[in-house]
Amino acid sequence: MKKIYFDNNATTPIDPEVFEAMVPFLKDEWGNPSSIHWAARAPRKAVDEGREKVCKLLNCAALELIFTSSGTEGDNHAIRGVAYAKKEKGNHIITTKVEHPAVLNTCKALAKEGFETTYLDVNAEGLLDLDALKAAITPKTILITVMYANNETGVIFPIKEIGEIAKERGVTFHTDAVQAAGKIPIDVQKLNVDLLTISGHKLYAPKGMGALFVKRGVRLVPLITGGHHERNRRGGTENVAGIAAMGKAAEIAIRDMEKEGAQILALRNRLEKGLAEKIPHIKINGAIDRRLPNTSNISFEFVEGESLLLNLDMKGIAASSGSACTSGSLEPSHVMLAMSLSHEMSHGSVRFSLGKMNTVEDIDYLIEIMPPIVERMRSMSPLYAGAK
Asked: Helix axis angle, 360-378 relative to 305-314, nearest 10°?
């Protein structure tokens, strides 16, 4: 049976070059980088070089980067760190209704500590109204946190413009760039962001690694206290192999992003065109011209998404119905509902997130096997009979 992977927004396979960069620090160079003897020298060099490479991906200084265990930790550190550091000034946070659970659930948890959050709407294309953002800012607003690109639809938010608004009003601005990093260029010097989160396993590095950009001068209360690591901002001995891997992944992304982005975009367009021509009653979700090149979220009317995914899995195709962090939930996607899709259309949404390992043959196989699967499932729906 074929095995085709269309779930790269959940996690990516480890790039062979990245794997090779890790190996020495899992085998021979096992020393603690904080020690002062011979066993520490190669690990310390790997940490420093890995940091430099990730900084080049974001265009920031080495002292502005904190390594974390994940995007979720980075989001928590940014949001909680600012909230605690600025609680004397105010208690108001602004975010959107379509954020990743790492942001939404952190804001909800802070409500128990006296913080208030405004959750901004998006329109049917998943886009944010900047006037609504401006109107939501109050004298007590201390943080705006808006994702760079949505994990379910790929919709890209106007981060530079949001940053300008935050800067004008004296509000700290964080963006969860986990899905954007490595897929589109990111330059923190041009974006007016104060904090930015990325994750290694979304750009062909292993799970268990992330990074948080913290602009020079931004006050942040540490989440993890302990030793002097990460300039006293995150205690804990460094994950040397993970940092080496993430640095290599960043280096590869800089080298190959433009070429791979064009190739993946062509594959995604082929996928959407092929399915639209062969399957009626489908809807592509998200602003067509403001999406990541790899992400396609499609609603199949009269079909239940989880059942569709199981049928695809039996044919060797891995896809998803949204965020991997909520895949155990039977509730409709909060992103789809925020975009005003009905419960039925939300339940019928499937996300195909492509990666650099995908080929034209993968796309054509999906286009071949998908129509009969959808037709068979729809034949069991009494609603579909009346819609033909």
From this structure: 130
366 phi and psi angles, rounded to 5 deg? -60, -45
At 262 the pLDDT is 98
CATH of 4-12+257-387, one of 1.20.1300.10, 3.30.70.260, 3.90.1150.10, 3.30.1330.10: 3.90.1150.10
Tell me the pLDDT tens digit for each residue of 88-125: 999 999 999 999 999 999 999 999 999 999 999 999 99
CATH class, domain 16-252, is: alpha beta
Q: Is 325 an active-site residue?
A: yes
- Helices then strands, counting H and E runs in the chain, come out as 14, 12
Sequence spans of domains, the chain: 4-12+257-387, 16-252
pLDDT digits (tens, 9 = 90+) for 234-270: 999 999 999 999 999 999 999 999 999 999 999 999 9
CA dist 73 and 76 (Å) reads: 5
